[in-house]
Model the fold of this input.
Amino acid sequence: MSVDSFNRRRLLSSYFSVIVSITLVLFLLGFFGFLVLSTKKLANHFKEQVTVTVLIKDNAKEADITQLQKTLSVADFVKSLHLVSKEEAAEMLSKKIGEDFVTFLGTNPLQNTIDLSLKAEYAEPEKMQEIKRELEQNSFVSEVIYDQSLVALIHENVNQIGLVTLVFSALFTFISVLLINASIRLSIYSKRFIIKTMQLVGATRSFIRRPFIRTNVRLGIVGALIAIGLFYLSLWGIVRSYPEFGVLIDNTILFIVFAGILLVGILISWGSTFFATQRFLNLNTNDLYY
Done:
C-alpha cells in the first residue's frame, strides 16, 4: 500500500469518526430539544381533554339555554361546547348499562347539560374555579362540575415534567459540546505538525485556520443533515406504530428542531476547530511531541 493511499484512508477514517460523533450527539440533542418544545403542546392536549359539565335546571326556559349556548360559544375560555339533552343522556346511559332505566323508574332523573372543553390556558385550578363561579351565577344553572383532582394533578405534573426535561436538555447540551469538541480536537491533533510547519514557513494564523474550519464545518453540516434525517425517520416510525403520538407533531416545532440541529452542528464545529487550531498554533515545536 502506497503512502498516499495510506494517508488518504487515514484521513477518510478521521472524517468518518467526526461525522459519526456529530451525528449521534446531534440526534440525541434534537430528541431532547423536541421534548422540551413539545412539553407545552402535550400539556395543552391533556388540559383540553378535561370536560366541564354545566347542569341545567328542569324548569329552565329554552330561550335561556339557547342564550347561554350563544354566550359560551364566543367566550374567551371555551374551545368547544356540546348541548346534551336529558333524553340523549338517558339514551346513552341506557346503552352503557344495557338496561332502560327510564322505563323502570317511570321518569328521567337526568338533566340537560352543556359540556365544555376549555382552552388550555384556562384549564388551570384557579381559573376554572372562577369560571365555575361565573357560570353558577345563572339562576337556571343548578351546578357546574369537573374533575378538580385531575386538573390539579395535570397542572402539577406538567410543571414538574417541563422542569426535569429542561434540566436534562441543558445538561445534555453541555455534554454534546464536550463530545463534539473532543472529536474535532482529536482530528486536528493528528495534523498538528502540518499546522506548525505552515506557521514556520510564514503562513498567517487565519490562513492556517481557514481550511481546517472549512473542512470541519462541512463535516458538521453533513453530520447535522444525517441527524435530521434519522430523527425524522424515527419520529415517523413512532407515529406510525403509535398514532396517539401524532398529537405532538407540529411543523413549527419540527422546523425549529431541525434548524437548531443544523445551527448547533455548524457553531460547535466552527468553535471547536478555531480553538483547537489556536491551541496548536500557540505551542512551541518541542511541545507538539507530548
In short: Strands lie at 51-56, 78-84, 112-118, 141-145. The chain has nine helices and four strands.
